[in-house]
Amino acid sequence: MSPVRRDILIGLAFLIAAIALPLLVPGRYIVTQSTLLFVWAIVVVQWNLVLGVGGIFSLAQMALFAAGAYATAMLGFYWKWPMLLAIPAGGVVAIVVSLVVGLACLRLKGPYVALLTLAVAQVMYVLIVNDTDCFTTTGGCMPLFGGVRGIGQFGDIGLRALFPSKWYVAHYYVALALLAVAIAFSVVVIRGPLGLAFRALRDNPGYAMSRGISRFKYQLWIFGVSAFFTGIAGGFYAVHFRVVGPSVFSFQLLLFLIAMIVVGGLGSIWGPLLGAVLLMFADEAMKEFSDYRNIGLGLLLAVFVIAWPNGIVGWIDTLRQRRRARKAAAELSR
Amino acid sequence: MGNAAATPLLSCRSVSKHFGALTAVRDLSFDIAEGEVVGIGGPNGAGKTTLFEVISGLNPASAGSVLLGGQDITRLPAERICHAGVARTFQLNAGFDTMTARENVLVGAYFGRENRLAPSLRLGAAAERAADEAMALLGLSDRAEAITGSLPVIDRKLLMMASALATRPRLLLMDEPVGGLTDREVDRIIEAVRAIRGSGVTILLIEHVMRFLVQLSDRVLIMHHGEKIFEGPPRDLVNDSTVVDVYLGKGASERLRSFMDSRGAAHG
Asked: Taking CA atoms, what residue in B is nearest to A206?
């Protein structure tokens, strides 16, 4: 089976299962948790393009998510933009932020990129939290970015009004559709020219340059395009929860998302999605032990980095290669 | 050749390259006309590969200028020099080891031809065709799906040439294309170089294997300590006392002379 064929089959299987889920499971909890899962899955699938495919060690992904979420909320709150316009605009704002960050960071190497991107995210967080000046006083004092409490009351995409009792199912399907597009896009990037350029750069940077590949330019591209869907996910998150606050910058969340990528398989097409599903389950299981949740997460991350650095998908690939090699050897000895 | 008024394809003017106190290339000037095959020889450490690094932009010149078709490319980044029409192969067997042979050539075909502002979503038929043509010209078509890292040395060398050709170069720089090959394999590379020349590409090659160099080159340049100590037709090499002294030695130059005599004149 050709790789693209396999991607399409896996994607369809996932899509059908996800479409059926709300029809099969009773109650609201699983559906709303799955909606959140889809939002995080969009983020990690796009982050994986930067981290695993582009080889850029950026920790700015949640800052881009926040840029999209805050832009959506502020356009709705201050200028009364309809949300269906504000969400894509949030995606565009995330691109702009990513290009500014990218221009500053991408000439640096490895760990410095991680440090600078994390610093950018922290600066954004501190600026928002420490801002106590009232920007507007309608409905109480509110700083420009909403301060610690965040921004609310900026509008909706209208599904709550349309399906008063089942709006959360409607949001589930919206998130699923966004995720499907984000995954399709990542498959196209990984299997297309950008993916080829980054594989070439990883195998042999000097040779890649002498064959016409500019590392900086293509890194900036992948950084920018992955920011778009991340920003859109942020906008949807804002609408879904009706509020955006500085909690999206939390380090715990960043760790949670990075663990999804590592556990699933850095750089692979399906690894981040698989990791997102597994980590949501693990998080659910650890819920009872509130304080130990982070320890469990850290432990899981450490075990994977040491024992299965290529994640579950990488481990499956190795098994398949070994089986193929064994088959080939058996055929030779016959 | 012959038309002195025509702009040379490549022109190096007083090119120098320093690494700290070390001068790897010193005040080197030469021209290459469209369609020529020029060979560069010289002892190890003479600055031959450094000269290629300078021309191809991986390690720009400290002084002097490099012109391609009259256009200054001295300070362009490596990928732009590739787009301008200079492709090179490497002394060590460079390759994208985890990719298939065809993907290696596709990289050249897709990224090497022009400066793309934005990458497209698919490689496109033009790049695929160019890659297949380059592989066919070098006899690699049956290796297309092999993983590059597992290919034998001769195929890796041919693959480097194929991916260079796929960038549609005007000038091809080849760094020791036959180093470490058997005599029969050398003959295969000679055929390949003739095929590349036949497709209209000008060639500048570095080689220690003198029978290869004199057989293919219209003109030979010998470098020593970063400087040019000889420039002329291959048959004059063995009569030049400096070249015999610093590079060939008495025995080798006699063998080379009889090799050239046995083949008549050494024309490409």
From this structure: B58
B253 touches chain A (CB under 8 A): no
Alpha carbon distance A155, A163 (integer Å)? 16
What is the reported pTM? 0.87
Q: What are phi and psi of B71, to 5 degrees?
A: -100, 135
Residue B127 · residue B109 · CB < 8 Å:
yes
The reply to whether B215 touches chain A by the CB within 8 Å rule is: no
Query: What are the two backbone dihedrals, phi and then psi, of residue B265, each rounded to the nearest 5 degrees?
Result: -75, 150
pLDDT band at B265 (very low <50, low <70, confident <90, very high): low
How far from chain centre, in Å, is Cα B239? 26
Burial class of B264 by CB neighbour count within 10 A (0 to 12, 13 to 18, 19+): exposed
Kindly report the nearest CA distance between residue A12 and chain B, in angstroms.
21
Question: What Cα–Cα distance (Å) separates residue A13 from each residue in A18, A19, B257?
Answer: 9, 10, 72
Separation CA A267–CA A265 (nearest Å): 6
Residue A210 to residue B106, Cβ atoms within 8 A: no
* Angle at alpha carbon of residue A182, lines to A192 and B110, rounded to 5°: 15
Q: How many CB atoms lie within 10 A of CB A166?
A: 15
Compute the nearest-CA separation of A2 from chain B (Å): 13
Phi/psi for B178 (5° steps) reads -115, 10
* Residues of chain A neighbouring B106 (CB-CB closer than 8 A): 196
pLDDT at B197: 95
Question: What's the rounded mean pLDDT across residues B27-42?
Answer: 95
What is the mean pLDDT of the segment spanning A177-191? Answer: 95
Q: Which of residues 13-72 of B touch A (CB under 8 A)?
A: 56, 58
